[in-house]
């Protein structure tokens, strides 16, 4: 056990560093980000101490009512999420120091404000503090998105869309919290010691929480408005990374926390979560594969990954319902592990794509702009491994997590009833399909983003400042590279942390159950997915792969009787006349648009204007925001917003006609009501 | 000298049912050959003042400089988000010869195709100038190897006209036998390629076996698998005896009988038919306006077949059925080819049955040499369609000018138009159904 004093000191240091960072932001961006890195480092230290050392900490800030207090709680579960977030924040702050050059210096304050509100969410022990953090996060993010570059109207729309969905999510979270409050009798229901809710109210809490946190995670059917891709892609890239990697992580944290405070699970919760998660994963992957926006594409991939996390949570609920302890434990660890792997990979991808958009001067993957400079090797290497991880290439983090989730769903046959078995199996198939389709998106982002360079000419460096910028950006990307590789290769270590985090939820530390040795692989390096079921050792797969790859590498490097011949690529026997004769990124995914036209509402037409033919695919307004907005649900949301505006206009006309007499009547009525209320309560 | 089925008149405008077939120069004057598809007449006219899109192709395709690719562009820039040009060829899978395409596309969907020809340009027309017709024949019949019987018959007919040579009927009938055999094996080849494109491997192999059978018949009766050297000035090389004629007739009947079985299987394969139906549609008006010929035109319902509309001997004396199909798609063109295999068998049997016995070579020297400023021409229905050659001889009987208008050349634009709105994977079906050959169009 770590001394409570030390932990309290770290909590204070964390908030102090961030607060100081926010303060100095407008004056010195560098100092702000340095303080951000410092605060995040404290966060890493704090969470590691709690996870490895065990124990938890509760700090009462303010006793509001006899039953409710504002309090901070450092529990293993929140520490785990704090660890993920802090690791992402460190890299994002490092990257921002140079990336931010084109943006106002207040962006650093807004960024740190978002960060500190996330820390507040993770460390809050009561619903009120949580909501304060949640709202602060939403509002700070709203202002960050407003700083985005590109089409001004598009950015403003994106920011307000984000705000609208943020408020919608808050409403549902408040409803869920109301349910928790009615069951616990206090707002202090987020700490590990809070009692669990049971009965019909639990279903209410689960559904409202799934909707509320699901809105923030962008999962189906709320992703259908595509608020998440639009908002995340319109923001500055460092903000996008923060939004997509850690803001949606808050949704995951909230959902798991609420689930941990429900006493008894219903069967249909599992079905609901599985279906919602599976559909989100598939649609996220499909939309990612046809996106042409350097940041819209990763944002869609975020939906896919959050869908996978919800799938794992659904499997956990079903397995728990049937008391399949082993399977439930593994599913929960899979959800936690996937949250880790996705956050680091996605932050890395956003930062890489931010750099790509900057040197290509376009958010359009399809653009044939000559890149200002070729990707330096850190960018290309980090890009490759990040993309590999998100496309689930072993032994990287994305593969391990997707393997775990699929292993859980493969064991659907263990569920106790036929419907669950069928749902589990079908969702397993959908998940596997999503994992396959996302490969299209990831190869596209790598080929047309990171590696893009038509002529291959590297421009001369313009100034020493530019070189410094690349160094720091490259450094932050190398940091993420290490994280992406580390989380995958050192999966057993992450397992150790996740087992600690889930120990309260699962009522046991399950590390020993799942991590053992097998077939000559030493103990502590093989992950088992059940008994008896699959097993995998990322560490030794990595060792094996590196060993195999190093042989040809060594041979080509050391030289020998082999000569390396370099030739131009075969281009059907002719030379390409220019970028317009290269297969572009849009063409790469058009087959999907055409094959799944019922889903994407693809329309194709060729209009002849004189001698010119205009080939139009999809509706023209999509490319105004440089992002495809094409689906049926958007019409629903559009209609909803029209109705709401109409209704409010009607009400305001009728109830607020601008006549003094009517307002005086309102005041009188209010007075009478207050008097009656006071008389009733006092009397 | 103008044959009786050619009308000499001045045409002012091309359009409607009148197709521009060829444009050539003789003794400094420009002429146009036109096909009046409504009245089944060939019209020889001075160059009409108003010409359509296909005119440019006839001229550009005639460029003789070898090694410089020519883009056959239907005109019109393509704009739009994501639109790019996808070069396909000159050396690539799917096109069995050196020739290219530029697909204008936003991926998968073909917005426009620009065929690139002239990679195989050998300049036959300029090379033979000043040669004796016998020598020139060797080059002409090899310029498109799988159409050699048509090429040599067309060239020789024009030359013999110029020289006023009386060619015995047996020789002319034998030339027709070679032409029909050539049609059968080429159509079998096209059928096999279509089956291959649909991954119908058994059907492909079957079609290739039948094609090989016909090639061996060629070798047995004409001395060459691809009928090189079968025809010569004033006659033919092969004197097919009565027994051999019976044998040839029976063999062809056996091949076509087997092919009928194959077609039955083909017509019951939904997968195969799906790939052909509604693929690469060429409406009748486009076929006429862009100058499509051969099975490509007849598959769009255009009534033109040189065997009926330009009936050189022996086609005037025997029964020939015009095989057309109103379907306008790849399926229709395929059905036209299949029917033509059947009708070629009938024609062959009649040719072999009723073949006159008046010898295989001309006995007399030419009767009347033409004026050197005169020219003569011939049209032959080659397997891919109407082949036109215009020959001018000088005072010594040597080639003064040669103009070849191959079928493939005029079929490029109809092909390009039909590919619009298709997807990439339709390419091979469209290509093979048009029977396009780079060797033929580039010559």
3D architecture notes:
The complex is a heterodimer of chains A (683) and B (443). Chain A is mostly helical. Among the domains of chain A are: 265-453 and 469-558, no CATH class; 589-630, no CATH class; 636-682, no CATH class. Helix content of chain A is 68%, strand content 6%. In chain A, the strands form 3 sheets. Chain A has a 3-stranded antiparallel β-sheet with strand order 3-4-5. In chain A, strands 1-2 form a two-stranded antiparallel sheet. A two-stranded antiparallel ribbon of chain A has the order 6-7. In chain A, 52% of the residues are buried. The model of chain A is unreliable at 454-469 and 619-630 (pLDDT under 50). Chain B folds into 2 domains: 6-60, no CATH class; 128-403, Cytochrome-c3 Hydrogenase, chain B (Orthogonal Bundle). Helix content of chain B is 42%, strand content 17%. Chain B has helices at 53-60, 124-127, 133-142, 148-163, 169-197, 201-222, 242-267, 270-276, 284-289, 294-298, 306-309, 330-353, 407-419, 427-434, 438-442, and strands at residues 6-8, 18-26, 29-36, 41-46, 70-71, 78-79, 84-88, 100-105, 110-117, 231-232, 235-236, 376-382, 385-393, 399-405. In chain B, the strands form 4 sheets. Chain B has a 4-stranded mixed β-sheet. Chain B has a 4-stranded antiparallel β-sheet with strand order 5-9-8-7. In chain B, strand 3 and strand 4 (41-46) form a beta hairpin. Classes of the chains: A mainly alpha (683), B alpha+beta (443). Chain A binds chain B through residues 292, 366, 571-574, 576-577, 580-584, 586-591, 593-594, 604, 606, 608, 611-617, 623, and chain B through 75-92, 98, 100, 104-109, 111-112, 420-421, 423. Strand 7 of chain A pairs parallel with strand 6 of chain B, so a sheet runs across the interface.
